[in-house]
Amino acid sequence: MQQAHISNEPQRWDHMKGAIYSRSRGSNLIYKTPLELKDGSIIFNDEDTYITDYNESFTLKGNIFTYRGLSIALPVNRNITPIQRIYMALGYSFDKHSDYDIDIEEVDFKSLLHVLTMMALRDEKFLRGNFTQHKQLRYGEHIFEAYVKAVSGSGNIKAKNKHIRWLNEQDTLQLKTKLFDTANYQAGVHSMKYTPTVIMDKIITKVYKYVKLLKFKEHSVKLQPLDFKFNLSKIDKIRMRDALLLLNNSIGFSDGSFIIRPTLQDTQHSRVYSVFTSISSDTRKLLGFTNYDIGSALQTICLQLVDNPKNFPLHKELADNKVAFRTKVMSETDMDMEWVKKELSKIDNLDNMPKKYKLYPTLEAYYKEALKLRVEILDNTEELTYSRAHEYAKPNWKAIWKVGKKEPDFVEDGKKEVSIFFFIWTQYEREIREAMMSCFSTPEACHQVHDAVYSKEDIDSKIIEDYVLDQTGFEVKISKN
Predict the structure, then answer these.
(1) Coil, strand, or helix at residue 300?
(2) Could you tell me if 390 and 269 are in contact, meaning their C-beta atoms sit under 8 angstroms apart?
């Protein structure tokens, strides 16, 4: 982890009347701190005793300074403001007259968030005063990074993740169990799903408040195509979770805005992931991006891969008019639109039909139709596309029971058919997205989010639809919002 910028020039504690020594800037990030006497001599501390470079010593215990047999009670500032606490924790010298600005080019923003998380944990009495500064910082780092993983994507985190591994091995306070709920783990099959508890949300809220107190130094930043700005004035309008995810990807501050540089995860020949895929659609819109969305992408793509689309009437009905189809399911299930949208988005990629579908004729019939569609797609996919899908598909696990064991062992038994299917149709989805991106003046500045492309440019949807048809052969409907 990078440390906050530390100046080599010692900062004198001039706000203390009669001060006779100064402390090197950044002492809160250095664990044995050199100090300098007014005559220029350097001293080093060992617990409460400080040794000078000419073999004299003094002690500093609390605010009692003892030197050559003389004890002096140093003044204590009992009215430390939150902003002063933050700057002290970041390693800046304590001076109520100072007006520090955080330099994001020199202070790694991740490290900054780790320090603030450490402070929030201390405020809530989760960290012990007898812990070293180093261990407290490690807690701040690993708790915050576990939170980021928990609120990004599925929330599943592998046991070998370095932050979870540290908490499993070094968390003597058992904070992981207090700050995260866990579920869905199955040895060799499923990673643990982490969900922040109410207490963790309280910690993160305090981190968020601390960030809003800070001032940031302006820089001229050379932008890369995917970079975008997150204006400080919008921080209260954006969901706290989204704001922290964005700030975790900040690389600079310019014109009153954080510069966000997404790191792409593009390894599957299908979908691309980044912080942009983790934030909400409302936040993307607030940041100035327009969503160009492939209507009913799975159904639209798959119906053009089979020999006879009429064999899949419910899929065609959904592709032709998703609003009407969703409304029909709402009426049948007596559920709200959000529930219906969620069910229809996952139903084609389910391993097994949920028992509740037995109560809903349309969903049951749709699922059975999806099984037939899946088989036809798998049987007719060209070799390269299939081999790529097979490579990235999730394994199918087989339970092996052994005498005397209460839990089975799981061995890999081929690949999940439904997962192969997913990685087939999303490869075609990617082809369509890339054709869509080519319609914009700067294609590399477009953000890919599953079945959509986000851009700050305004283009007629019909232009995109015609280009996609010409380049890929797929006939799609593009909605813009």
Answers:
(1) helix
(2) no
